[in-house]
Amino acid sequence: MAVTAHCPSCGAPVVFKSASSVFAVCEYCQSTLVRHDQNLEDIGKMAALVEDRSPLQLGAEGSYKGVHFALIGRIQIKYSQGIWNEWHLLFDDMRTGWLSEAGGEYVLTFAQFVAEALPQFDDLKIGQRFVLASQTWTVSNIENAECVAGQGELPFKVGAGYPVAAVDLRNQASFATLDYSETPPLLFVGEAVEFSSLKMANLRDGMAVPTKAVEARVFRCPSCGSPMAARSREILAVGCASCGAVVDAADESYKILSKSLGMRDEKYSARLPLGSKGRLEGKPVEVIGFLVKRCVVDGLAYNWSEYLLAGEHGSYRWLTEYNGHWNVVDVLSKPPAGGIIEVDNVRFGGQSFKHFSTTQAAEVVQVGGEFTWRVRRGETSRVVDYVAPPLILSSESTGNDLTWSQGNYVEPQVIAEAFKLKADLPEPTGVFANQPNSWSETNRRIWGLFWKLALAAILVQAFFIFVSSGKLLLRQDFTFEPLRGDEVQTREFEITGKPRKIAVHNQTSLDNNWIGLDMMLVNKVTGAAWPAARELSFYSGYDDGRWTEGSQSDEIVFLNIPAGTYYLTLDPDMAPDKPMAVRDRVEVHTAGAGWSNFVLVMIFLLIFPIFSAMRHAAFEARRWAESDHAPVSSDDSDGDD
Question: Which pTM value belongs to this model?
Answer without folding.
Answer: 0.67
